[in-house]
Amino acid sequence: MKFDPFKLTENIPIDSLRRRALDTILSVGVPFNLGLGLHIIELNPCAIKVESPERFFRKNHVGGAHACALATMGEYAAGVLIAQHFPVSDFRVIIQKLEIEYHKQGKGKLIVESQAPTAYPEIVPDGTFIDMRTEITNKNGDLVAECKTRWQIKRWDDVRSKK
Could you name the CATH architecture of 5-158? Predict the structure, then answer.
């Protein structure tokens, strides 16, 4: 996805409609996430809150959220928050590392929250790395999982790829 979903939706005056448009664009742009039913419920430059309703495609063999679904939720929230600051039309935003610690079963609706860094670093040609932390909680506010991600940010002009 080399277009900027935030630029596409920036002129939508009603916040709930803008978030719904972002949900749709991001589900089409990253179809892997479609089965999780992720919905942005709060988004600003400093923080994001995403909801994942209980869904069949999210379940593991004992009826809770699958470990990989939880990891994807943590990655998604942090990635959306970073992509707000570094437009994907100008920057390649790619995960470099993902670490997750599971605390309890994820049943029912889950809430995924991530905070932006206090200051974003300057982008250098070899790539800049940003570490993020995301919490996943259940409807009671219990910590289900804690996800730590490291993101590499590069300008598209600095990306060397083999064709």
Answer: Roll (3.10)
Taking only the tens place, the pLDDT of each residue in 10-63 is: 899 999 999 999 999 988 888 888 878 899 999 999 999 999 999 988 999 999
User: What residue spans of the chain are helical by DSSP H?
Assistant: 5-9, 15-29, 67-85
pLDDT in tens, 116-145: 999 999 999 888 999 999 999 999 999 999
Distance (Å, whole) CA 112 – CA 114: 7
Domain boundaries, the chain: 5-158
Sequence-ordered list of residues with C-beta below 8 angstroms from that of 151, at least 6 positions apart, any chain: 78, 79, 82, 93, 94, 95, 96, 129, 130, 131, 132
